[in-house]
Amino acid sequence: MAEDSRENPEDEFRDMLREFLSGNAGFDPAQLAGAAGLPNDPALVAQLMSQLQNALQSSGEGVNWNLALEQAKQHATRSSVVSLPAERSQLEQALHVASLWLDEATSISELTSTPRLLSRTEWVTETMPVWTQFTEPVATSIANALTEVLQEQAPEEFSNMIAGASQLMRNLGGTLFAMQLGQVVGQLSTEVVSGGDIGVPLLDEAQAALIPQNVAAFGAGLDIPEDEVRLYLAVRELAHARLFRHAKWLRMHVLSSITEFARGIRIDTEPLEELAASFDPSNPQELRDALTNGALIPPKSPEQLAALGRLETMLALIEGWVDVVTAQATTRLPHAAAIAETVRRRRATGGPAESAFATLVGLELRPRRLREAAAMWQTVTDATDSDIRDDLWAHPDILPTAEDIDDPAALVARLTSTEPARDDIDKAIEDLLNDSGEDRPREE
Question: Which of 328, 361, 394 is the last residue of a domain?
């Protein structure tokens, strides 16, 4: 007698999903792609279905990060154009001049590695390891939540099937997440102009890079000479890279802070439970909204809010310093102030891909206190000099705080004080001696 394939509950569940994904269950695959927040592109829908079918056969765990990379590269390649030799030569010259100008604005030394000119696809490849680090905790939480809700909400007749199929759901959830992440990073590759454009160190330490195609797009329509735009953006990128090379501790601090924040995210299963109870396969808009508007990520806990505040302060300090040093180094450019304002507006609003990343991971990449931080760095520069300003990056313990951003005058007073600084031990000893003096009986 032939072996009954239905004896294994996991095989039964896999067959049911395969029928579903093949469209044999009265469901249009394009609707699933739309629900996942992916464009209504027939080639992309076909790829999604193929990848989900492969996920059913996979024995691996978690997110298929190679799929995320390939998806992002495909998106980036679709709109890429090859930069002409003359264009690359102009950018290389701009980077050379920018380095000389920065030498006049900061004592932080120049880079030891040559700045790179990257295509959109190369930017994706170079930065994907950091995106993976940021999003892995959230992807894991989503996969766990999907499995938990499936087990709780499935009809009783499916319970035996689902009990042994949690890994299948993790694979399917991981595949959907990977394709979403690939779309976000691929779209970002069309928006960013440099390696440090979003303020986070996406490239290796001490590496600067410009994306020629996006630099040209940034300057289009500004009514500003192209050579000024190239020079300004080159100065900004080199300033950002120099800072991270100088402050050896900074890159790891920022990356670990973002990763720790992401690890604290716990997916809210209540919206998933409501979707599971009322989901209409012929109208996947509700599922799409939940996946793309951040509804699955619950409000931040007090601990997360505190961590987010510290991270935003650090990002504001970084970006504010870069703004001030860039302004100091580009005084020769007639339209430097106009370009700077364009950069600030662009950074304040962010692009579509940044919004997608914020909903996917629950983290805004743009610091809210950037203008205040830049004003603080400018106050320090005016009251002291660039050497004292830049020395504050030597160690995290002496870096300005959120309170210093609120009260730059107090920071300047400390920096210019001629009295020796007292640490906590000095203060504790002084308090102890004062207390002892007060307790000693007075002599007659």
Answer: 361
Tens of each residue's pLDDT in the chain, 444 residues: 444 444 444 454 455 445 544 545 454 555 555 544 556 666 655 655 565 556 555 555 567 888 899 989 999 998 889 889 999 999 999 999 999 999 999 999 999 899 999 999 999 999 999 998 888 888 777 777 766 766 665 556 555 555 555 666 667 677 778 888 888 899 899 999 999 998 888 998 779 999 999 999 999 989 999 999 999 999 999 999 999 999 999 999 998 888 888 777 766 666 555 655 554 545 555 555 555 555 566 667 787 788 888 888 999 999 999 999 999 999 999 999 999 999 988 887 776 667 767 766 777 767 678 899 999 999 999 999 999 999 999 999 999 999 999 999 999 999 998 766 555 566 666 666 666 555 555 554
Residues 181 and 44 in one domain: yes
* Residues facing 210 on adjacent strands: 117, 194
Separation CA 356–CA 367 (nearest Å): 17
Count of the separate structural domains present in the chain: 2
107: Cα separation from own chain's centroid: 29
**Whether residue 239 sits in one domain with residue 317:** yes
**Whether residue 337 is found in the same domain as residue 397:** no
Backbone torsion region of residue 206, taken as left when φ is above 0, otherwise alpha when ψ lies between -120 and 50, otherwise beta: left
In a shared domain, residues 315 and 410: no
426 in any annotated domain: yes
Are 369 and 405 in contact by the 8 Å Cβ rule? The answer is yes
Same domain for 327 and 432? no
Closest CA to 109 of 241, 234, 202: 241
Cα–Cα dist 357/257, whole Å: 17
Assess whether 411 and 353 both reside in one domain.
no
Q: Is residue 230 part of a domain?
A: yes
- Tell me if 144 sits within 8 A of 267, measured CB to CB: yes
Residues 196 and 297 in one domain: yes
Considering the domain architecture, whether residues 171 and 139 belong to the same structural domain is answered as yes
Tokens linked to 199: 């303020």
Dihedral over Cα of 425, 430, 433, 438: its sign:
negative
Decide if 373 is inside a domain: no
CB count in 10 Å sphere of residue 57: 10
**SS3 of residue 210 by DSSP:** strand
Q: Look up the pTM and report it.
A: 0.77
- CA 101-392-381 angle, to 5 degrees, is 50
Domain that includes residue 415, residue range: 383-437
